[in-house]
Amino acid sequence: MTSFHAASQFTALGLGIDAGGTQTRWALADSNGAIVASGAVDGLSALQMGSDAGRAALHATFAALSQAVLAVGQPAHVHAGLTGFGGDGAALAQSLATLLGLNPPDVTLCNDIEIAYLDSFAPGEGYLVYAGTGSIAAWIDGDGVFHRAGGRGVLLDDGGGGYWIAREALRQIWRREDEAPGSWTQSAMACAVFEQIGGSDWDLSRQFMYGQDRGAIGRLALAVAASADADPLALDILQRAGQELARLALALTSRHGPRPVVLAGRAAQLHPAIAAAMRSALPESLMMEQRTARSHEAAARLAAKAGVRP
Predict the structure, then answer these.
(1) Hey, what CATH topology would domain 2-115+295-307 get?
(2) At what angle do helices 112-120 and 295-307 cross, to 10 degrees?
(3) pLDDT tens digit string along 130-185?
(4) What is the arrangement of strands in the sheet containing 146-150, beginning at the earlier edge strand?
(5) CA-atom Rg of the chain in angstroms
(6) 219 phi-psi bin (left φ>0, alpha ψ -120 to 50, beta other)
(7) pTM assigned to the model
(8) What Å distances lie between residue 308 and 32, 79, 169, CA to CA?
């Protein structure tokens, strides 16, 4: 999936990448910072580098992204934010550089949340709470030091993210089935969830939760949100998701003082109840705003700036 936004000839292009568990978005910016093309491929995580199968899947995703990018033009520099990135990016940078015909020093890697933060704030200004497949709160202080709350991974926590919402939904559905078999037919949420995973048999739920990647599980939150206006249990899960996200913001304010809060991420946009519950769980004095993240475009502008040779 690729979209074009400007003329057919581009120079000094910068490629920005925002890689999450559900989707990897990319954008190309010219030397003036204008976005000239954008697209999306499958989700990925830097944690995939820990296994042969993961490395193969990651390389395939990078290859699809590079093919789409090179059909538009040759970037001079890449700025990529990847979920799960912990700082050791030599192999990742080499892989991207080779596919794009660049040298490894032309590829800058960081955590995806750093890019998302700079899309919302200058260093030191405020706190970003980001809810995608997982969840995290971030603050980059005036010295450029990255501070976090949450973001520990979906198996440990990541409360309020898409994976958490999906897990909570299936947990509640099957608890009710333990108590009253067949009760799922009376639940709009259960019907929507089972439709998405292919049926109401326990084996299908088990295969889905333990056999799918975290991005696919996170997308199940769409079914929860779609049923929230008809199912009080779904609405309760979304409201608790908002409270979980508020906890992340409060953790940073308790450590570093009150600052404006921005809520962003695809999971945060699933239903208005999430942001409303988060707002209600925060002090009235704390400014909060919800924004649509365009992290791949922010990364593209950083890359274009880095790619301009003096």
Answers:
(1) Nucleotidyltransferase; domain 5 (3.30.420)
(2) 90
(3) 998 899 999 999 999 999 999 888 888 999 999 999 999 999 999 999 999 999 99
(4) 146-150, 135-140, 127-131, 261-264, 288-290
(5) 20
(6) alpha
(7) 0.80
(8) 10, 13, 48
